[in-house]
Every structure is written in C-alpha cells, then in structure tokens.
Amino acid sequence: MLRKTFLLSILFLGLSQNFLFGQTNQLPVYENETAYEVYSAVLSYPEAAQQSKSKNFVIRQETLRKFGAFLDVEPAPNKICLRPDAESAKIIGTAVADFIKVNQTKWLLQEKFKLEIPYKLVSSKTIISIINPFTEKEDWKEFYKQYPDSGGFIDLSAVGFNAEKTVAVVSKGGWCGSLCGEGEYHVLQKKDGKWIPLEWKGEFCNWVS
Description:
Layout: E1 3-9, H1 33-43, H2 46-52, E2 57-60, E3 82-84, H3 86-102, E4 119-122, H4 124-131, H5 140-146, E5 153-156, E6 160-161, E7 167-177, E8 180-191, E9 194-197, E10 202-208
Parallel strand pairs: 1-10, 2-4
Antiparallel strand pairs: 3-10, 5-7, 6-7, 7-8, 8-9, 8-10
C-alpha cells in the first residue's frame, strides 16, 4: 500500500482518571453482526497473536472512541487520522465518514467474535482497578497474574462501513505494560465472503508507546 505513515509516540504523564469509563451497564449494546465479522478478521491476522505472544485474548468490553487513548475520552468531531487520497476516497470515503459517526458513541461489545484463540471480554472498570494506571501503584504484574498468556489487553473501535457493507474501517490497539503498546487503523474489503485488507492510497497514523 502506498501510504504515508505518521508514527505517534503516546505519553501518558499528567493524564487524569477523571476521563474514566462510565457505567458499563448503561451503554448501548453493539449488535452489528457484520462488525463482529470484521473484528474476527482483524484479530485473526497472524501478527495479532505473534506481536503480543498471546495464547488467549483479553478484549476491553467497551469500544474505544478516541484512537490511541488508554482511558476513553470523547473524540473531536469529524477528526480521524486516516486520510485517503482523491481516488481512494471514492472507495473508502463513506466508510471513513461512518467510522467517525459511529464512534461518537461508546458501545458495549458482545461475545460474538469467531476466533481460534480463546478470548474474554473484560470491562474497563475491571482493567483499571487491576492496573491502577498513572499512579505509584501501577501493577501490570497483577494483570498478568489474573490473565496469564494474554499479552496484555486489546482495544477496538466501533466499525465504519460503506452503504453496501463491503468496505470497513476499524482501529485496534494493544496494551502490554507501562509505556508498552501499539495501535493502528485497518481498512478491509469483503471479497468472496471474506474480510481481507484493502489496498488504498493516502495518509494514516499509528501509535507506539
């Protein structure tokens, strides 16, 4: 893919836990069956397990609205660090627009993933209470004690689609410790009944900590 990449280094110092997660049981349930097909495709990429050395996945139960954030915060309206050029915008532009729209809401994920690796959905409240990020008591050892062989936890955005639901845009992040993690956008197309990476031209961001 001919894309210009901007690498973001994420610094967490000075962030406040006032941005926390909200009440899980008050969130709308994410029932989009096609979105779970997309999630399953992205999480089934060989590198998804290899990078985190996961034997099982821990997935944050709430979608993450703001790309690269550890604690959920509301994204700026109409802002996304994924900008196709004019030709690619004809193909993926409506999916990008839908991605922005659907991620104004935080959703509650369901156990509808189809993965070869076992997985568990864990609430933000549970994850934060175990790790205690941004404090002197930050404790990833306790997280790995409770979720061994997980390689950390995964964040997922809601999925944006074109009108025909043949093109999808989603972001995925992985957190493995203090200043340890990475994330990126994925653009996929449905071909012969399967979701596969779509080649496009333009600019996008990924993040590494």
